[in-house]
Write a structure and sequence with these properties.
Blueprint (H helix, E strand, L loop, with lengths): L2 E3 L7 H15 L5 E3 L1 E3 L2 E2 L12 H7 L3 H17 L5 E2 L24 H17 L3 E2 L1 E4 L20 H6 L3 H5 L5 E4 L16 H8 L7 E6 L9 H11 L3 E3 L5 H11 L4 H11 L10 H11 L2
Parallel strand pairs: 1-2, 2-5, 5-6, 7-8, 8-9, 9-10
Antiparallel strand pairs: 3-4
Helix pairs in contact: 2-3, 3-4, 3-11, 8-9
Length: about 300
């Protein structure tokens, strides 16, 4: 379906423009190119060629008008991405930061309550879309209770599902109209031992309780929260209801195994892909200096 880039793929603006053009040429169509450009620790494009941004939670807690600040910030990021051929950003992170949230995730969150996260997440999405970039909300249906780093271990949300539905799911429910979402490698015990990415009951809740009708991506299959071989991980994620699986470590043989195990898009998945990609718009002309001055004023 598309490509995702990491810091290992990024050097200079000219190099990145050539890379994104070559990737699209290799498949013969205007395939989406994704990146995680949240700001803070998770920022693949960095100085000296691109601006450094505060961790999202730090900005949420320091801006005089967080909504305005996030719209401006992600308009700026969208302009930086589109200038090098990237048109999908894996933001907003709609997980809710709590006292127990693992450090790998906590300062990537947009707030500490469902209302704050939903409000700031909507601003992030508005900034992306205004800049011609598709947002990907993550990690559905909520990863904020993770006390383990899912890159290394499988975390569990040790709360009743009714509590998770009311609290963790709420920001995703508020933004269920967004075109793309990403699943969480997170266990909700009442729904069974499988992480949400591979759990049909949890995918059903994403579709029904949260009401998300958009394109659903798995989180990275390479993460050690998932067990089994890479092909088994891909097959289980698709069988559970993910439309598309994400494989991020760049290992060629694994990529081939994942592609074979995932198979072709189903008709509903293809329709969701087409709907999401139809929302891509030409990048507008923006005055980065003026936006930067506005953002600095809001950050004091």
């Amino acid at each position: 379906m598309g490509f995702i880039l990491f810091a290992r793929n990024v050097d200079t603006p000219d190099q990145l423009r050539r890379l994104t053009a070559d990737l699209r040429d290799s498949v013969g169509w205007d395939a989406p190119v994704l990146i995680d450009q949240e700001g803070g620790r998770v920022q693949r494009m960095r100085a000296p060629h691109w601006r450094e941004y505060l961790p999202p939670l730090d900005q949420a807690q320091s801006a005089t008008d967080p909504e305005a600040a996030f719209i401006i910030r992600y308009k700026m990021i969208a302009a930086e991405l589109r200038a090098v051929g990237i048109d999908v950003n894996c933001v907003p992170t709609l997980d809710i930061a709590g006292p127990e949230t693992h450090p790998f995730l906590r300062n990537r969150c947009l707030g500490t309550t469902p209302e704050e996260v939903a409000r700031n997440g909507r601003a992030v999405a508005k900034g992306c879309l205004a800049g011609g970039v598709l947002p990907v909300m993550k990690h559905m249906p909520g990863h904020g209770r993770a006390t383990l780093d899912s890159h290394k271990e499988l975390p569990t949300a040790d709360v009743p599902l009714s509590e998770a539905t009311a609290w963790d799911f709420a920001p995703f429910r508020a933004l269920a109209d967004l075109p793309i979402g990403m699943t969480a490698h997170m266990v909700f015990p009442e729904a069974g031992p499988r992480p949400a990415t591979q759990n049909p009951a949890m995918i059903d809740m994403i579709r029904t309780d949260i009401g998300f009708g958009g394109l659903l991506l798995s989180d990275d299959l390479s993460m050690e929260a998932l067990s089994g071989g890479i092909a088994d991980r891909a097959a289980a994620s698709v069988a559970a209801g993910c439309d598309v699986v994400l494989h991020c470590n760049g290992k060629g043989p694994e990529m081939e195994a994942v592609a074979a195990a995932a198979g072709s898009l189903t008709d509903p998945a293809r329709a969701r892909v087409e709907t999401a990609l139809s929302l891509r718009k030409p990048a507008p002309d923006v005055d980065i200096a003026a936006l930067s001055a506005e953002l600095e004023a809001l950050l004091g």
